[in-house]
Amino acid sequence: MRSTFEAQRAAFAREMLPSLDVRRDRLERALRMTQKHQGAIADAISADFGHRSRQETDLTEIFLVLSGIRHARRHVAKWMRPRRVATPPHMWPARSGIVPQPLGAVGVISPWNYPFQLGMLPALGALAAGNRVLLKPSELTPSFSGLLRESVAEFFADDEFAVVVGDVEVGRAFSQLPFDHLFFTGSTAVGREIALAAAANLTPVTLELGGKSPAIIDADCDVGVAAPRIAFGKLMNAGQTCVAPDYLLVPRGRVDELVAAITAAATAMYPSFAANADYTSIVSDRHYARLGRLVADAETRGAKAIRIDPAGETAPAAARKFFPTLLVGVDDEMAVMREEIFGPVLPIVAYDTLDDAILYVNRHPRPLALYWFGGSAANRDRVLSSTISGGVTVNDACWHVAQENLPFGGVGASGSGAYHGEQSFRTFSKDKPVFYQARLNGFGLFRPPYGRRFDAMIALLKRFF
Length: 465
Ligand code: NAD
Prior knowledge:
Layout lengths: L1 H13 L5 H30 L4 H27 L2 E3 L9 E8 L2 E5 L5 H14 L3 E5 L5 H14 L5 E3 L4 H8 L5 E5 L2 H13 L4 E4 L5 E4 L5 H13 L11 E5 L3 H15 L15 H16 L3 E4 L17 E4 L16 E7 L2 H9 L6 E5 L3 H10 L4 E4 L20 E2 L4 H7 L1 E8 L15 H13 L1
């Protein structure tokens, strides 16, 4: 790992500003790699999860990566161009500009839940910006991580882009390397450790973390429209999605209606769960047991659990198919309301007024995503302006993440920094300011010995500029 890092650093020093052709070629190879191995990638992820719907892998990993590469390929020439900016008149005739420059050797640490997309999208942003990339995927998806290492090695030289595999200890050693930038996607707790490790090298970090993303159902919401959208956002990848609605805030009088509508929507999408290839398994026994404990703890403390089981199945624990479970009557003492759920369990918090719902969100750490469902533009704007979150989808769930024109990233406890599209390029570039002084200029007036001429000039500047 260390020697690959050193090789990448040395290679970068030999080519500090890769040309447009070089960058496009690297993106092209990432595209061919994805196209060639897409079937094997889906199989490997499915093997690691126990079962992962192939269509989900196609939509949320292969397609998003392909479109991310194509977007970067189309726009990289514009992104890398030096930009002129205005120069204040008292500095004329000097000129000012911003010159984007790659940072060097960049590290990417990715989680298991969308293992291809969450490793490749930052990596290709870093490549487009002209960097070398070392990527460490999660140990929870060993088949996939091994395949990714081989696929990347087939299309890239080690000193361009390489993958190192390993567990938490490898991750720890990885985060201690003096990268020029470290990009981490994972839990808030590990994100803190990454930030501390990177601080020792003054390595700048982007932290894409988790948290509890609320969905606010407004009083005038059409639940017939909202419920299938919420159910899709929550049940895709069996809820193992960083931006899945973690809990719902629902007007007190509409809880029963919402439970019925979500149950119906989930049943329409999945007539059965245990034996349904469209429904993804929970990634590990530990996470499966954790979800069971969250539900049991909530029930013990007085919540009502509604398990959605349209086919009346019994699911073997070994298959790790966790049936969607709605929880009503929850409170903040329950673990399910204190921890990120990361599975198909959906607590419903009843509220009296929209202000109460906003207050509830603002009493908790800043979420990665927030959803609002309703018809009133005034209420929508009130929610938008009085809550802070990493991103928002209005009248749907998750979709703000799935395009390259919107930056994606958290705020506060859900992360710092952002990526996707041009934002990835900026994250992995130094936007270097350059001031081009003119041969003839008035800057001599700023120099001592100070006297009346200086005083007159500074008085003018202080008054008018
Ligand atoms: P995790 O934090 O346990 O692990 C993420 C990665 O960090 C893995 O590669 C792991 O090997 C490595 N790692 C673990 N401990 C480490 C340490 N001490 N030092 C260095 N590296 C270490 O997260 P996870 O369980 O793989 O993923 C789930 C979490 O990720 C959830 O909290 C979820 O919300 C979050 N997530 C966030 C986003 C986002 O875009 N913001 C996307 C997906 C997942």
